[in-house]
Write a structure and sequence with these properties.
6-stranded parallel β-sheet, 328 residues, alpha/beta, single chain, 12 helices
């Protein structure tokens, strides 16, 4: 089956589509992933055909496909598929939501094909024990496990040496999220962890956070979360669906610092499940992070719930489950 995967969402969305594409290729699909140029090197390393282009350039590829899979990028994919009479399915990584002051609600109106491009025959790749669908949507949305990379990727020698040299560190990283003042953010992060006397691994991310040469703090570029998180004491992150899923699988407490709409949803779920705490990004200060870490680090109940969650998710493979749901 010739399958075009329309991956014009976030970088994380594109990387998850690359993982799904690998599984579909193993199942005999002829797949090409279309997306912005950034993830092209990752696709090449995974032996996944990738067309680096803009959304407006996909119509030609769609017209030659048997199936279109989409995540993000508006509704151009749907219009191209409908014009060519081709089956289309939407793959989401966060449940469809809307916001009212003070609370997140399920948006029943946005689950249809007409609402926000959620798509025909939608597939939701998000762990149901973390983000269960409301009863009225079960049967209308195929929910499978979160699509995340597997473990076993070796950490750089520098990171391995740091981990072996002391107690499990706090992880601090916010992926592609920008910050207005990275220098101030760095001071706040370092002030919070040093005030508690804990070690930390900081990934620079898009904001370029971190300061070299600080005792008991290692500043690095992007690392394999599936390998690293299980060796940390607490994971402080931005609340992306993939990062949240990997932290849940690692069985460690979390502090989520959401920036965008879907990240607020994941932060709320982690807090509601007792797996950690949250700090909205606009409220992130040294004092706020110090307070959350001071509460989470010694919290044995939180640590226990995190380990139980990891056990519940053990053995689930979102790429395989999503591929099976798509070809069913």
């Amino acid at each position: 089956m010739r399958t075009v995967m329309y991956a014009f969402g976030s970088r994380g969305d594109a990387l998850r589509f690359i993982l799904l594409a690998r599984e579909l290729i193993r199942s005999g699909h002829d797949v090409v992933v279309c997306g912005f140029p950034g993830p092209a090197a990752t696709a090449e390393a995974a032996f996944v055909p990738y067309a680096a282009c803009g959304p407006e350039e996909v119509a030609g590829l769609v017209s030659r496909a048997d199936l279109v899979l989409a995540t993000g990028g508006g509704t151009a994919w749907r219009e191209a598929a409908e014009a060519a009479g081709i089956r289309a399915r939407y793959v989401a990584f966060t449940p469809s939501l809307y916001f009212q002051p003070g609370r997140w609600w399920w948006s029943r109106a946005r689950v249809s094909l007409e609402g926000m491009g959620f798509g025909a025959e939608p597939v939701l790749a998000a762990d149901e024990v973390v983000a269960p669908l409301p009863a009225e949507l079960r049967g209308r949305v195929a929910q499978v496990a979160a699509i995340v990379p597997g473990g076993g990727v070796k950490l750089p020698d520098e990171v391995e040496s740091f981990l072996e040299a002391g107690e499990p560190p706090v992880y601090l990283g916010f992926g592609g999220m920008p910050f207005r003042d990275p220098a101030l953010l760095t001071r706040d992060l370092l002030g919070a962890v040093r005030g508690l006397g804990v070690r930390a691994i900081v990934t620079r991310g898009a904001a370029g956070i971190g300061r070299e040469g600080v005792r008991d703090v290692l500043v690095t570029d992007e690392l394999p979360h599936a390998t690293l998180f299980q060796r940390c004491a607490v994971v402080v992150h931005h609340g992306g669906p993939g990062t949240t899923a990997l932290a849940c699988r690692a069985g460690v407490p979390q502090i989520v610092v959401p920036h965008l709409a879907h990240q607020h949803f994941w932060a709320s779920r982690i807090a509601a499940l007792g797996l950690g705490r949250r700090i909205p990004s606009r409220h992130l200060t040294a004092a706020a992070l110090h307070d959350r870490l001071r509460r989470v680090l010694p919290d044995e109940q939180c640590a226990f719930r995190a380990r139980v969650m990891a056990e519940r998710l053990r053995g689930r493979n979102g790429s395989t489950e999503a591929a099976d749901a798509i070809v069913a």
